[in-house]
Specification:
Shape: globular
Strand order of the largest sheet: 2-3-4-5-6-7-8-9
Radius of gyration: 19 Å
Number of strands: 14
Structural class: alpha/beta
Helix content: 25-40%
Number of helices: 12
Length: 352
């Protein structure tokens, strides 16, 4: 099936229930709003730890898990959705804390934020070598390291931060710890695609639906569109095409991670707006659009439902979901705690 031949309206495809290996649930009243969408799309989701205060300890991670569980929709069948927790890695995270967290069975990974690289990352890593004691234990016990793969060094162009991170951080880290299981999260460049494809089997990457569907023109042409502002920032079309090729290749190196990141409308539509694109309302449908554009709907299930679970050594979900090619209009706003948010494709059509 060519990319010029969309599937007919009414076409249905049934796939194993996906998982999301990068999700922002936030904290407080808005969490319930996010979960209304996420639980319709996914069986499990990795919960990002960049709260205020950040989730730096086992106790905080388990308490956050309980808050997520208590915010689930009341009509959701018990056990049909599982939040997978992470620790926020800092310069001072101890080996003992890593062992304690992993032993709970609920904390599946540590998240590496370069200090200052994205939302609520001020407590992040300032020097990767300071994390080596913790990373060595993670390597030993098989705990995954999730990385926001951008440098935050002043003077590095925002469009170059991912390639520079690969050269300055990832390559030396993999050389020093060749068996450490790593997820380069929300990759956004051809450079990252090429590196992951050439890297050892334990190095994999997640890709968002918005990086598959949009380039930087969506953010900048015809006026600044703040709801398409995310980090990593949208890149040139050549990078989007490389991401599409990777996601639809069938390679188990790449899997679903939405990085769905909700913000109240007043902090997005501001003089200094927050980074983050909200896609939890229709993420799987948007991935289907991307895969359909490449004539690769037969590869959608593995990308959404198998590759990530396998890397995290989780059993694949047994439930199924069915997508139908039937256009619908996304609401212009959704409730978000005491405020509202503007989702991706607000007021526009989604094909599935």
């Amino acid at each position: 099936m060519s990319s010029q031949t969309p599937v007919p309206e009414g076409t249905k495809i049934t796939i194993t229930l996906p998982d999301d290996f990068h999700h922002h649930f936030r904290d407080g009243p808005s969490t319930a709003n996010v979960l209304e969408h996420a639980t319709q799309q996914f069986g499990r989701a990795i919960a990002m730890p960049n709260l205020r205060p950040p989730v730096t300890t086992t106790e905080r991670a388990l308490a956050y898990r309980e808050r997520i569980l208590s915010s689930l929709p009341k009509d959701l069948p018990h056990g049909s959705f599982e939040p997978l927790m992470t620790l926020y890695l800092t310069d001072n995270t101890s080996p003992d804390e890593i062992r304690k967290a992993f032993a709970t069975g609920h904390i599946k990974a540590c998240k590496y934020y370069p200090a200052g690289a994205t939302t609520n990352s001020d407590a992040g890593v300032t020097d990767v070598k300071k994390t080596y004691p913790a990373l060595r234990v993670m390597d030993e016990i098989g705990m995954i390291l999730c990385i926001h793969s951008e440098v935050s060094t002043p003077g590095i162009d925002i469009f170059d931060r991912e390639p520079v991170f690969i050269e300055q951080i990832i390559k030396p880290l993999v050389k020093d710890m060749p068996n450490l299981k790593i997820v380069m999260e929300h990759i956004s460049t051809k450079d990252a695609v090429d590196y992951v494809m050439s890297a050892p089997e334990n190095i994999k990457a997640s890709i968002t639906c918005h990086h598959l569907l949009y380039n930087r023109n969506a953010l900048l042409v015809g006026g600044i569109r703040p709801h398409y502002y995310c980090l990593p920032i949208l890149k040139r079309e050549t990078h989007r095409q490389a991401l599409l090729g990777a996601a639809t290749s069938g390679s188990n190196k790449f899997f679903l991670g939405t990085d769905s990141a909700p913000h109240a409308v007043e902090v997005k539509e501001a003089a200094c707006g927050c980074a983050g694109a909200y896609t939890a309302h229709c993420a799987v449908q948007l991935y289907a659009e991307a895969f359909e554009s490449m004539g690769a709907l037969d590869k959608l299930e593995a990308f959404c439902s198998f590759h990530g679970a396998d890397h995290y050594q989780l059993p694949r979900n047994t439930q199924k979901i069915t997508l139908e090619k039937k256009a619908w209009i996304v609401p212009k706003r959704y409730s978000f705690g005491l405020s509202q948010l503007v989702p991706i494709r607000a007021g526009e059509s989604v094909a599935w």
